[in-house]
Amino acid sequence: MREVEKLMNYRPDIKVVDATLRDGGLVNDFYFTDEFVKALYQTNVKAGVDYMEFGYKASKEMFDVQEFGKWKFCDDEDIRQIVGENNTDLKVAVMADVGRCDYKNDIHERSESPIDLVRVATYLHTIPAAVDMIEDAKRKGYEVSCNIMAISTAQEQDLKVALDILGKTPVDVLYIVDSYGALYPEQLARLIDIYSEAAAKYGKKIGIHAHNNQQMAFANTLEAVGDGVDWLDATYCGMGRGAGNCAMELLMGCLRNPKYSIYPSIAFAQDYMNPLKESGITWGYDLQYLMTGHLNQHPRSAIAFTKEGRKDYAQFYHEIVALD
């Protein structure tokens, strides 16, 4: 964290993005009640959150609508039932995953939709498809980010080429996504240097989406803020796939921008997140997620370990080491 002033001082360019419904939806197959979603929306407005990500724009041809809650698909009318005309400063976001959405048909013209921001999610090997999605969303009038997933597995030269390709598109924000929760702040700082070079060259912003496998999500987000990253993802009580994400209440507690307020986050955690956990929905740091993060592996094996109710952590470690 080379510039403490960027952490301690008022940062008008900071944008906080709530990803609770989208990343958290991976834990419960997107089955959130309307009451929960409306309360989350109202909390974000009160807390000063800049963007609320409602979920995915997943293809209904690829995914059975009977097996998922509606935030897997984020139909415009479902969003409108929550936000109405959204006469607030909060903006609405959705994620469009390369290869898993029918973006040409399911993402409508911005003038007809309650959505403000389309977050294109891609791996390095699907960058060409991501470019087409970015250009399509921009033509329709949206703000657009590009979230490059599993960045901890990327070769530096491949990443530089990808950022150069994306820099030439109309994308607004380039996201570092620590999908496996494998990065430490020192490693993240090096990645931010690479992103910053491309961002400066092409006039883009940089974002961070951190996972908590090694309990580094908050630390890595703070590192990013100190290094000049402006777009920050978080979820309430860290709810997200596997080990979860940077906790919103932690982030709200440290940002010096007077527009943000921690109290609504605490109240929402008390009234909605804690009961969700008590109902049996499971997420957050545990040994199995530490192991996959330490080994820079996708957490799918740890997720399976959790669902099976296993407690043989040492045996699990032997199994996943053999996968390397």
Structural features, described:
- There is one protein chain.
- The protein folds into two domains: 4-278, Alpha-Beta Barrel (TIM Barrel), CATH 3.20.20.70; 287-321, no CATH class.
- It contains 14 helices and eight strands.
- It has helices spanning 4-8, 20-28, 34-47, 76-83, 103-106, 127-139, 156-167, 185-202, 217-226, 248-254, 263-278, 287-294, 300-307, 313-321, and strands spanning 15-18, 51-56, 91-97, 117-122, 143-148, 173-178, 205-210, 231-234.
- It is globular and about 55 Å long.
- The mean pLDDT is 96.
Which short descriptors sum up this protein?
2 domains, alpha/beta, TIM Barrel, 324 residues, eight-stranded parallel beta barrel, 14% strand
Layout of helices and strands, plus pairs?
Layout (H helix, E strand, L loop, with lengths): L3 H5 L6 E4 L1 H9 L5 H14 L3 E6 L19 H8 L7 E7 L5 H4 L10 E6 L4 H13 L3 E6 L7 H12 L5 E6 L6 H18 L2 E6 L6 H10 L4 E4 L13 H7 L8 H16 L8 H8 L5 H8 L5 H9 L3
Parallel strand pairs: 1-2, 1-8, 2-3, 3-4, 4-5, 5-6, 6-7, 7-8
Helix pairs in contact: 3-11, 7-8, 8-9, 12-13, 12-14
